[in-house]
Amino acid sequence: MEKEETDDPLRKLIDHGNSFISRYYSHYEESAPILEGCGEPLVELLVRQARLMSMATPDHGLIKRRLDDILSASYNKFYAYLYKDLPPCWRLLYTEAAILKFWVLVFEWARSRQPELIRKRVWDKMEWEDFELDTPARREEVYEIKARFEKQPKGTPPRKLGSAAWHQLMQLSMRTEVGGVHVRRSREASSRVRERLQEWQRRNEQEDGQQGPEQQQQKREREEELLNDMVKTLDLALILAGGGGKHDEIHGYVALLEKAASLPSNDNSPDKISSKPSESETPRQDPSLGRTRTTSLTQPPTKRARLSLPPPTNPSSTIDGWLPLNASGELVCPVAISDEPPVNTQHQTPIITQKPPNWSSHPSFSPYEPFTPPVTSPIPRLPSPSLTTFQSHLSSPTPQPLILTSLVPSWPALAAHPWSKPSYLLSRTFSGRRLIPVEIGRSYVDEGWSQKILPFSEFLSTYITSPSESKGYLAQHQLFAQLPQLRSDITIPDLCYTSPANRPDGTPELEEPMLNAWFGPPGTITPLHTDPYHNLLVQVVGRKYVRLYPPGAGVKRRGEEAGVDMGNTAAFDVGVLEGWDEATGEGGDEEEKEFKRLEYVDCILEPGETLYIPVGWWHYVRGLSVSFSVSFWWN
Questions:
Q1: 3-state helix, strand, coil in the chain (%, to 5)
Q2: Which stretches does UniProt call biased (Polar residues) (predicted)?
Q3: For residue 473, what are the β-bridge partners?
Q4: How far is CA 197 from the centre of its chain?
């Protein structure tokens, strides 16, 4: 008879982990043809770790080290190729190893939060592995002992069966069966099994022991560290390896983890261990965790070749992973709106509230603008045009830039799910734990420009809500493929499904519009450049100054720099030549005179407005305040 599926998020997470490990070989068969390109030794090492994880008492530390070796080996291959030329086997191998590491961390985390769940898992596996139940007679012998366990009160660990039953288990560890005849195991094999049973017993006794305040604090810190590591492991697979074609699978695991993390952790006192073990003998797969067939991924064209990004050295040290609640059970913004951020030292239990918070009462990002350039040649503004009208505009020989004032009035990001509220963004990024790639520096053409991967909460507190000498910019990142929670707050404008008449030669056709996020503090700059696609730039939070030059304006291009073709970026630095920024390199009077002769149009883009940028137009973009924008490329 089929058992009911549990509603306990942590138990459901463990069930999915058990199911994933038990089905790994059928799962692996889907990936095997692609993984062959990585070589047999690495692939065999990966499969061996899954086999070790299926053991009753696996050595998690050793398995994590081996998986880290695989992650390092595959990541090193990212340096040997341009991203678009990277063989898909290395992205997939990185992703497969990351998912296995995620489950190792889940089992460690669950052991701390609800040890009885892991004990039940170990007991179920120990029957087959440690007692070699290879004949019906032998299985019947051990199941008789198990039956005594099942008659005990729910949550009773196997070691509390009584001395007779425990002694019988130890005796079973001394012998095996060959051809229907009981024979004694070798002394070495018997000793190994006995040691594992005794170690398991010692672990349970330690977990059942009373813990003082210091031990409880250490336990909470360890759980938080493991939680951050789990999120980091999956996010790096999405950011560095493109998800290896397993986006839906990874999103499902993150969703289950976030639900499990919203529950309080057991304090491990003996009187608190009362949760019953999972009744399901064969955990069923959650429909939300549908697998996607592994495919080769492509990277969108960038303004500057993206560097391979090293993982952060210690993201957990900078994450405050709990959102505080007020007396009404609503989220309170945990990041600073003033210069001095409040320190949250208490781990409060709920991360997800039972009722939708009233975001209108939460603080918004500051609208402060340190500097506002004058608009000297305004771009025409008009309400949202019909598809026919816009198609006619696109079909003209030289379509011009337009500001559309009412194209996205119903976006939840502008009202019900306000991206202008730090607390809302934190609530949609697993309390700020999710990782994002950040550009460090004023502009990607400046010397010293670099890239980092940071937790979202650290990005907010370091670069958005507090003054910082350096600039941090989440720029041209496919954030919504990584965070579907934010993707549901916006919709693709219908205008992206029109058919532009002209397209640069060699530009690949897009099957669907390409979405990118742009989020940063005042003063972030995208230097003068061109894009290979038509673009709708939607301003969601704050304001931006945008200047555009037509394709035939005579803008001087940059050349190849450090082996990177920078021909889509102008040699002029608009901010420097206008006197808005300090010079970062050499320039001359002739260059300034040439620049001053060029004709352009410009605007300040307000929240809720959309700028249409025709393909081939040079554009310079400057954040005036804290700014969050979404761009839609299409052809």
A1: 45, 15, 45
A2: 291-301
A3: 439
A4: 38
Measure the CA–CA gap between 255 and 64, rounded to whole angstroms: 23
Can you tell me the distance from the alpha carbon of 90 to that of 93, in angstroms, rounded to the nearest whole number?
5
* Secondary structure element (H or E) that encloses residue 216, with its range: helix 213-241
Compute, in degrees rounded to 10, the torsion defined by CA atoms 378, 625, 575, 602. Answer: -10
pLDDT tens digit string along 136-163?
555 565 556 555 544 544 444 444 444 4
Q: Beta partners for 451?
A: 439
> How many angstroms separate the CA atoms of 5 and 286, rounded?
10
- What strands lie across the sheet with 627-634, from one edge to the other? 381-382, 402-404, 610-613, 534-541, 627-634, 514-520, 472-477, 435-440, 450-455
Q: Is there a contact between 152 and 161 (Cβ–Cβ < 8 Å)?
A: yes
Type and span of the H or E element at 576: helix 574-577
* CA dihedral sign, ordered 291, 294, 295, 299: positive
pTM for this prediction: 0.76
Give the tokens for residue 268: 């491990």
Q: Which residue has the tokens 């492509």?
A: 298
The region of weakest confidence among 3-12, 138-147, 311-320, 478-487 is 311-320
Determine contact, residues 496/519, Cβ cutoff 8 Å: no
Q: Which of 465, 457, 406 is nearest to 435 (CA)?
A: 457
**Token match 């997470």: residue?**
13
Q: Phi and psi at residue 167, in whole multiples of 5°? A: -65, -40
Chain segment 551-573, per-residue pLDDT in tens:
988 888 888 877 778 888 998 89
Using CA atoms, how far residue 70 sits from 178, 309, 382, 623, in Å, is 38, 17, 54, 41
Query: Exposed, middle or buried: residue 38 (CB in 10 Å: 0-12, 13-18, 19+)?
Result: buried
pLDDT for res 68: 97
- Yes or no: say if 77 and 35 are a contact pair by the CB < 8 Å rule: no
User: Please, which residues have CB within 8 angstroms of residue 314's CB and are 6 or more apart in sequence?
Assistant: none
Instruction: Give the tens place of pLDDT for each residue, 575-611.
Output: 989 999 887 665 567 777 888 889 999 999 999 999 9
Render pLDDT for 328-353 as a digit per residue (tens, 0 to 9). 433 343 333 333 333 343 434 444 44
- CB contact set of 460 (below 8 Å; sequence gap of 6+): 335, 422, 425, 426, 432
